[in-house]
Amino acid sequence: MTLSYSTDIVVFGGGVAGLWLLNRLRSEGYGAILFESDSLGCGQTVASQGIIHGGLKYALKGSLKGSANVLANMPARWRNCLLGGPKGNSDINLSGVQIVSDHYYMWSDAGLRSKLKAFLGSKSLSGRVRAVPKSEYPSFFGNTPADGKLYQLPDFVIDSSSLIEVLAGQQPEGIYHADPSGINFLRNGSGSITGVLINIANKLISIATQRIIFCAGEGNQALIEKAKLRNPHSQVRPLNMVYVKKRKLPPIFMHYIGGDLSLTPRLTITSHQDKLGINTWYLGGELAESGVGKDAAEQIEAAKKLTFSVFPWINFNDATWGCFPINRAEANINNNYRPDDVSLIEENNVLVAWPTKLTLTPLLADKTIETLNAAGVPVLNQGHPADLDKFFTRPGIAKAPWS
Ligand SMILES: Cc1cc2nc3c(=O)[nH]c(=O)nc-3n(C[C@H](O)[C@H](O)[C@H](O)COP(=O)(O)OP(=O)(O)OC[C@H]3O[C@@H](n4cnc5c(N)ncnc54)[C@H](O)[C@@H]3O)c2cc1C
User: Fold this and answer.
1) Which residue stretches of the chain have pLDDT < 70?
2) Nearest Cα to Cα of residue 16 among 252, 365, 358, 372
3) Ligand 1, atom 50: nearest CA belongs to which residue?
4) CATH 3.30.9 region(s) of the chain?
5) Comma-separated ranges of CATH 3.50.50.60 domains in the chain
6) For 206-338, where are the alpha helices, taking DSSP H only?
7) pLDDT of residue 141
8) What is the pLDDT of residue 291?
């Protein structure tokens, strides 16, 4: 026997994109439910460095167009959410989310190249970047007479696990765990998808819906294949992220720009505490990109060599080092390069969504709501089908991989 229910929208994936969207859909009045295959945030979101970018990292590569332009207003928008001040329906109250650093820095060593110096000091960036005088250097420089130049960016850093907790906590109902192998899609005579059919504990649950939204990060590819969609194409860009833990490591939040020609940060560092309260540096940037394919011993050796040379005044004795591979998952719209913006691709009543950056998630939700409005998708259902609570459990919240 098949048990039949209906809702306006079904979302797949409980990372930042899916949970943010669930909040926005419900504040627009839509009946919506979300299915997560593992734990909430467990893909990229809790592994992210939590930097709310203002785009200057990308501006280093050229002009203030593309990503740099799209990201420029995001720190202010997020700060408004973090202060609990949603304006109208278009934002979310994030007042419980932990800000781990109110500032993010960019540091270039003594070999600072004139191009970078001219760019960061340029008129087009005035008001967005501040050259920090030595007397105001943050405490992680200790008493060292660190050479080079330090800039304070508009970027700041949040704890992405607490973001997931807040987004999920605001929706106590209708977030369900579901095994992807038990999920199929229902179609009408013209091939458009009209619902979801889920096989759980020897029961068949049919959920009719107006739209389905895939927000499953790397899992979008398998969903695209299952739904037999032809237009959305996904890509992954791998990283080999490193962490180092030691009780007395000073917290540090900084892109370190080396003296090479690429102007890609050689190290992108954020600081966190693991579950035992031990200070943890989380290291990305060029170190993580060039570490792809290296085994753990090689990657940790490369990380040690770089960090020891960049921070000679910091004592790493007795520190614990680790690394892990993780993929960034995005739409493939630009020949495997990172898209400049969010991606939302519609086909057969399915919207496939990638935020590209955690920072851009509010724009992804705006775009989704605009797309639903433009298609005239009405609000037909209130809340969620409460009967579903009998069949599905609520997923837990993921832990950061370095924790
Ligand atoms: C190491 C790293 C560092 C990063 N740092 C930053 C940063 O500092 N700032 C920034 O702006 N961006 C950063 N990013 C990018 C950012 O993390 C991602 O753009 C963002 O988290 C993607 O969110 P998402 O919800 O789309 O995907 P994910 O977070 O990957 O979530 C997808 C969810 O879908 C679930 N799922 C998968 N398959 C299915 C299925 N079939 N059914 C149901 N659920 C499914 C997964 O279990 C997961 O919970 C970073 C990314 C990485 C990898």
Assistant:
1) 61-65, 86-90, 110-124, 126, 144-146, 259-263
2) 358
3) 48
4) 56-158+236-330
5) 2-45+164-233+333-390
6) 220-226, 286-290, 296-310
7) 81
8) 98
- Burial (CB < 10 A; 0-12, 13-18, 19+), residue 175, is buried
Q: What is the pLDDT of residue 55?
A: 83
Give CATH for domain 56-158+236-330. 3.30.9
The predicted structure's pLDDT at residue 21 = 98
Taking the C-alpha atoms of residue 170 and residue 18, their distance in angstroms, rounded to an integer, is 13
- Ligand 1 contacts (CB < 6 A) are 12-18, 35-38, 41-45, 47-51, 53, 180, 215-217, 219, 222-223, 239, 241, 284, 326, 328-329, 354-359
Ligand 1 centroid to Cα of residue 16, in Å, is: 7
Provide Rg for the chain, Cα atoms.
22
* Distance (Å, whole) CA 314 – CA 307: 9
Across the chain, how many H-helices and E-strands are there? 10, 21
Return the closest-CA partner of residue 264 out of 284, 280, 282: 284
CATH architecture of 2-45+164-233+333-390: 3-Layer(bba) Sandwich (3.50)
Q: Quote the ligand 1 centre to 242 CA distance (angstroms).
A: 18
